[in-house]
Amino acid sequence: MDYDVVIAGAGPVGLLLACELRLAGISVLVFEKLANPNLPIKDGPVGARALNIPSIEVFYRRGLLPALKKGALKWIDMSMSGEGVEAAERGVAANYSDNSDPELFGRGPAAAYGVITTQALETLLSERAAELKAEIRRGAGLTAFSADDSGVTVYAGETQVRSGWLVGCDGGRSTVRKLAGFEFPGTDPKVCGYSATVEFADPEKLSSGWVRTARGAYVNGPMPGRILTVEFDGPPKDRDASITLEELQTSLRRVSGTDATLTAVHAATRWTDNARQASTYRLGRVLLAGDAAHVFAPIGGEGLNLGIGDAVNLGWKLAATVNRWAPETLLDTYTTERHPIGAWALNWATAQVALMAPRHHRRARVSVLADLIGGGGRAKSLAKRISGVWQRYDLPGDHPLVGRSAPDLEFEDGTKLGEHCRDGSALLYDFVDDARISGLGARWRGRLRIITLRLKKNSDLTALFVRPDGFVAWAANGPPDLNRAASALSTWLGNSE
């Protein structure tokens, strides 16, 4: 093999997956059709993306949170419900600051909301991939491949390489997905949307943020010159046609009801509410992640956040498979765990588009829903859905932490759990210095790290097994059940030595 894994697409999902694989020592080649992702081209990256708590946890655990915050357009620390939070945001932050709620407990520095441009996020991840020595070939898009039982032969123009696995992270119109023959059921588009970065002659004529109107909806911001419009008169006639300044201006004026004037367009793309999801994320040695596996309207950053979760879930499982110690069924759990969350996100985005439609009965429905979620536990429930903290996997075990993202526990030595996750290892924590726990973990030597530390605060928690993606696979209060621990370790790390 020339490489263990080839990835098609150097967007945020492909780059993050490459980083995760390199942490495990897997050789990776990323093919990217764009020679320079920052050039203002028709289908180039446009605008800002919101990051939810699970996504921010990924960057925190890999030591990238400072760089993420530095590159962000907006950052709200959700643990701050008083000073430091603007009045308009205080109520939102309060909904995330209840540590008595198991879904909110222990999120640490990741209890935040961030907005970042696609370009800034790709720059951060490109630099990280380079540090980890992932190979990225830009201006060389995947054009064909052939897969067999032993590997995949990948073609990018005149270039041919052989790899063990191929992952399509090449967007909603994925070449990998189409060539591999993945089923991609869903609904056809009914709206036409534009996202663009522009210059205005008169920006004051537009309101800031999301604005619903009698003709659709538009967004102005959060960064100067970023606009988005949504029209409900049907999909674009030719989604691939060049986007002109006049076309964008016409859409903006029609939706906003103003005569706002554009003077320049730096980048623009069309989008629709096309909603589809691959039936499975794996066919043999070919896998999908991010928009290649699921597409829907780009509302609220759900697509990006979903793709980040895909990459972190897949990365360690594919690495374990390449390294030949994974249980036979491990790679199948990628679809099992991620597909339900993708289905939820698709429905969530589709419902939001429906509620934006400029029809009287739908406006009434929005008003009723606003009343229903207007306070108390209902508002918190909605906040948890938007933030992503509700996400969990159906893993074996009855401990309340099992299947959830690990809390950012504090230890007597001053460290936190998230700080131990930077190398992407599985972690077995012994909080009571029980030699039986470390002795058990030693049977999986080389596949996990054993950490014996006392918790800073009194707790019934005595031991914890955290997968490389940060999710708890086993936990114990009081005397640990070592048989259950061994079962969990075998399930996720394969047979012991």
Give a verbal description of the structure.
This protein folds into three domains: 270 residues, FAD/NAD(P)-binding domain (3-Layer(bba) Sandwich), CATH 3.50.50; 83 residues, 2-Layer Sandwich (Alpha-Beta Plaits); 77 residues, Glutaredoxin (3-Layer(aba) Sandwich), CATH 3.40.30. Helix content is 32%, strand content 24%. The chain is built from 13 helices and 23 strands. The strands form five sheets. Strands 1, 2, 6, 7, 8, 9, 17 and 18 form an eight-stranded mixed β-sheet that branches. Helix 8 runs antiparallel to helix 9. The two termini are 27 Å apart.
**CATH domain topology of the largest domain:** FAD/NAD(P)-binding domain
Q: CATH homologous superfamily name of the largest domain?
A: FAD/NAD(P)-binding domain
Low-pLDDT residue intervals, each spanning 5 or more residues: 39-45, 81-94
Amino- and carboxy-terminal Cα gap: 27 Å
- Mean pLDDT over the full residue set: 88
Strand content: 15-25%
CATH architecture name of the largest domain: 3-Layer(bba) Sandwich
What is the radius of gyration?
Answer: 23 Å
Biggest sheet features: 8 strands, mixed
Total beta-strand segments: 23
Features:
alpha+beta; Glutaredoxin; FAD/NAD(P)-binding domain; 24% strand; 5-stranded antiparallel beta sheet; 497 residues; 3 domains; 13 helices; Alpha-Beta Plaits
